[in-house]
């Protein structure tokens, strides 16, 4: 392991990999990064030296981090009668150690040439090598010495298992209970599957010493990898064939005998010394009650495995000749219905014939998995012999899959997800073996893999195959002798093993394969990125398996399985349904499959993936205990379909059967309609054209909630169905509906949806007062288009021709908190946000060369524009004003027909104080604020700044340069940013709008948006754009506001701003339809050239951005501040950066908010959700409470309904909910300086519809200008009732010499001196009095907390 960055640096924990692996990969990144940029020859030489250091093992020397390699692998011997322990080594080559300064050997030069051809950079090869060296586990090495010793001890104990002789079921059960109580202190039950054998069943159970004991699985093949959740080592114990009879494959007889054998193996291990070192318990293989196993997990504090953390699994198996493979073919029935009907006489020969019974393919596959266990092991061993890099490639596939699995993921404090463990490393290894060895793979997939390829090539080829192959549409097999018709008829997805007897994908659900295909497609794109290192995305990203952000909509379902589990005996129909349940191996898995299949079919157009994750199942949770269970449903939305108002169904006349199914699915929601093209079809209508943006985002959750209530009796809490849905959802429920309720239907299932609940915080308090048809973003954009046509129609009346109008207002790019509000004649609003627009005129050489004169000419242009507009459109109201002085007669501003003057002497260099004209449109009621974009002004500022600098007038030059940057920001950067965000929200990702608004609401509620010290609105929008243009960890772009918002919080919580470049690549945005078309093309035949070439920034542009970032780090300009760059903004000059202090505050708040969201999801309650949007005021030194009567923007606060907490069937009022959060109130020790209650004002300004005048923000600006060095002020810009403040400790707490030039309100410290001068300190008490005096009429209370 080569030394990397110095010790003591902060380490970021990454889920799924051990700490050593993460550190080593970053060290490889530090060593190899030089080879990616700059002078190629010099960099290649450095890379050669680093490679030599890596091969020689310089740096850290740890036996645990190295893997010994052997020149040749041990060949697996044939199975013998004597139990033995096998552990073959993975084949690899080891370089010879040499001095670092020696030149590279021929082998190393060849390796470097190969790396340059196969990898985009040598860095990626170094990272893969380091990752495998740290995570790959191979037997018979120094790192696994203790593990190999334990495996030998396990073998020695298992060969001593007692021979019990034949026993009845009752006797065997009592025998295990008695022995279990002796060795464990508690009675032990035989892990019989469901249904358990009944008393008197004619079957004899027995145990004898195993025929063969072998270490199987990935460990002896050199393909095992260790992660944070340890790794598994499998020990196969082959049960003697004489314990089984020819027809034991029928009616669970084999599984009953197997369960008794497993129980006796556990008892034998408990009797040994291993019991003191390991926790020995039962577990389920692939969550199948038919396949119990014994697991050994190291006890806490024990070091019996050295530094390794692994689980030893004891897997029973049986010889191939025990049963006829033909009788276990997928079309055969081996569980008679008579057995399930409890008719013992009919359970045997007198029952129906085999071909008349329902097939039991899953049951047969469960037996075959034991029969063929060693056969599959041998096949993988042979593949590794023919392909030397097969083991390393398979290990990479396992690591890749580990990062994307949900197994054991924690949800909240107590719940874990069961995950999909039927798609595992063994399946991926067999897929890779098929690609390498199968003739069919070479013929028809387009992926050409051979045994001579390297691990990276094999891994990449397997990923690209998984990304495009649909196992349901295109079944595959190793040979040509399998009965594919039988497999296709009884399985969905088919992958036939080398024996042509077993479907390796048995039990794998369709959604699991769809999710695997989706993950692989994203990884394939990442592997072909030409602009950046993809290693972190593919192998290290911690966000890949996070259920809170992986899906667009997430639902928690609490169900009671009583009615699902109740039909045990009775009619043949019930027995058939019972058999279908038993086929899945576990009741919870059966329910999972039923829900997933139903929703996939019902929402086929709206979503490409519906994932259903049950909570983890403990072995002891059997049928009676698992009545109540929790499922999490994750939905990825199809952008083009999920927001459609009308879901079209079939034509009843042309498709009567499909029409009947559609009516059964939607009930009274299905309507017969005639459409404009003349077609008559069934359809479900979910809203009208006037539906709000937020309501359309919830169409898909409403559809799912409707289906779950109609077909499963699962009711949403809080309710997301509208009254129109509730009127018909419970009517005429189909007979096939499966009720997740109790016997008397007193309790039904509960559905909790995060998407619908969190969107409540985007709403504002006054939206109910307006017509929904008017308050939309589309109405505002339409109003702007109308204004643009009208302004361009005035060209003949203006001195210069109008070229274009450039909108820059957030409300015109779907990015404002609420849609722009029109000003109607009858309204008396205290604040109206103007919609800012830049007017670009044709160029002219007659602009004055003096800046002040130029501004006055611009003001005259605006006056002329206002006069011409009012003449052409008399109903409009036009005001010309100044950004600094505002409106009013004393300001000397143009209103109506009076003359135009500019009051006072404004700063000539501050473009933010330039003039504007407000046009209140006569028809649509929107207020547009127009300013002039004059390119000559920018040239003039730049020229004068250069002249000042040449003349040595540095102060004046810097002032002009600052003014020039402000001019660029206002006239060029903001319009370009506006177009980028508008395209993102309008053309590509509609969910981006809701994401931006949720993020702005969250920032504002925590008093961190805008203002002098907050996050600028543009940076907030870029944060949201980042999760759409560059999804973290290979995830798909969000398709809902909820998922986008959660990913923004994850970005703020996890991004390493001082180490990694954060870039927004607007050229990489693409719709999901583009990706779907790409997949469809790839499925037709061979992969087209360049299918995996992703869009995005060019390599040269990326190198420029990375170089600028590295240079800033080198100059120590990067200090942990939030910085977002783009191709046209490499230095983040457009909007600046967010200070390191504020960045750390954002990280802390986002981590806490994510924890609250996870807890809400885990508990199924929204009680903690208001805390996500409420900031703790106790963190501040003082809090100023404002008079609510003078808060102009209080209508933009969330409605009270957003703070209503629904817990079960009980709704808590907003007052009660707020009172619960004691930590959000000021501390009890705070001193309050109560002021006289202000007089209540209906309209405190005595003016109607004030445009852009917010006295609270002006008050904060004045305080900031006066006390900038002494305090920081924070406020919710959307009508917050508090101003929170922090004292600057360097100013307030440190005494200073008392001099005349000392700034601020200070008081002397009696008797103290600093040098020869008296000491003085900041007079905070007097400052508080000054603030109260300045805020007279605005401040209601001033609370000093610290």
Automatic annotation (TrEMBL):
Pfam family name, one: Nrap_D2
GO molecular function: RNA binding
Main location: nucleus
Top-level lineage group: Eukaryota
Compositional bias of kind Acidic residues: 60-80
Keyword RNA-binding in annotation: yes
UniProt KW keywords: Nucleus, RNA-binding
Bias (Polar residues) ranges: 88-97
A GO CC term assigned to this protein in UniProt: UTP-C complex
InterPro entries reported in the protein's UniProt record: NOL6/Upt22 (IPR005554), Nrap_D1 (IPR035082), Nrap_D2 (IPR035367), Nrap_D3 (IPR035368), Nrap_D4 (IPR035369), Nrap_D5 (IPR035370), Nrap_D6 (IPR035371)
Single Gene Ontology BP annotation: tRNA export from nucleus
Subcellular localization, as worded in the UniProt entry: Nucleus, Nucleolus
The Nrap protein domain, residue ranges: 233-385, 390-541, 549-712, 771-986, 989-1164, 1177-1341
Disordered, as annotated region: 1-104
Homology family: Belongs to the NRAP family.
PANTHER family listed in its UniProt record: NUCLEOLAR PROTEIN 6, NUCLEOLAR RNA-ASSOCIATED PROTEIN
Name the UniProt record assigns to this protein: Nrap protein
UniProt organism field: Coemansia reversa (strain ATCC 12441 / NRRL 1564)
